[in-house]
Amino acid sequence: MATLPILVTGGTGTLGRHVVRHLFDRGVPVRVASRRPAPAGPQPHEWATVDYRSGAGLTAAVEGTSAVVHCATNMVRGEQELARTVLAAAKDADCPHVVYISIVGVDRHPLPYYRGKLAAERVVADSGVGWTVLRATQFHDLVYRILSALAGPPVLVLPKGVRVQPVDSGEVAARLAELATGSPCGRVPDLGGPEIRELADLARAYLDTFGRGRRIVNLPLAGRSYRAYREGLHLTPERSDGRVTFEEFLAQRR
């Protein structure tokens, strides 16, 4: 009997493309859900063009799958509404398992995007569909993009006293692929990067790697979100299971 495919929403994104690769490595057929039409030419996996805003095409994309790995994100419209649309499609298609990627600290941190992820977790848990939720710390990719943007001017200005615990998106994807091929298990242990580092320290590593001479200035900020970052509410020191360091990630980028 043929193995049913697993649908990956956001399957062409930073995380989703790694999930697709890891599922292939496990010999699992994959169906990629994307807002974009399928690329020209033969594809190694099934493709489903969907509209996450209206839900058009989502139920058909989920039908006949053994699980959905929900990696698509929408910072503008909101994580809660996006999750509601995907979970409604999963329920309509009788999908037995939805795996959702969330962020460490969403239940403690006041950042609006984090609150949206927490609300999305509740949508997943209350959907009536078998579910698994994995929380991870920030990806190396995100820290890299932030530092790349900030390093444009001669002075690189950073929020003072902020630490991060970046994790490799490929390692998170491997865990999601593992969870998707198993049974629903609710909230699973968090996944954190191997090191908790000062943001300024990571900035120096970035500048050294790419030979960019910039002076780093740390400025104190105000507000609840900044205070939460300073207090480390987005960190999980007891779950530093990641292996790839930020310097190793940068070496790959270089």
List the helices and strands and how they pair.
Layout: E1 6-9, H1 16-25, E2 30-34, E3 46-49, H2 58-62, E4 67-70, H3 79-92, E5 98-103, H4 112-125, E6 131-136, H5 140-150, E7 155-159, E8 163-164, H6 169-180, E9 186-187, E10 197-198, H7 199-210, E11 215-219, H8 224-230, H9 246-253
Parallel strand pairs: 1-2, 1-4, 2-3, 4-5, 5-6, 6-9, 7-11
Antiparallel strand pairs: 8-10
Helix pairs in contact: 1-6, 3-4, 7-9
Labels describing this entry:
254 residues, Rossmann fold, NAD(P)-bd_dom_sf, NAD(P)-bd_dom
What does this structure look like?
The protein is of the alpha/beta class and 254 residues long. It has one domain (6-253): Rossmann fold (3-Layer(aba) Sandwich), CATH 3.40.50. Helices cover 37% and strands 18% of the residues. It has helices at residues 16-25, 58-62, 79-92, 112-125, 140-150, 169-180, 199-210, 224-230, 246-253, and strands at residues 6-9, 30-34, 46-49, 67-70, 98-103, 131-136, 155-159, 163-164, 186-187, 197-198, 215-219. Strands 3-2-1-4-5-6-9 form a seven-stranded parallel beta sheet, sandwiched between helices. A two-stranded parallel sheet has the order 7-11. A two-stranded antiparallel ribbon has the order 8-10. Strand 1, helix 1 and strand 2 (30-34) form a beta-alpha-beta unit. Helix 1 crosses helix 6, helix 3 (79-92) runs parallel beside helix 4 (112-125) and helix 7 packs parallel to helix 9 (246-253). The longest helix is centred in the middle third of the chain and has 14 residues, at 79-92. The protein is globular, with a radius of gyration of 19 Å. 40% of the residues are buried. The model has no long low-confidence stretch (mean pLDDT 95). InterPro entries: ComplexI_NDUFA9_subunit, NAD(P)-bd_dom, NAD(P)-bd_dom_sf.
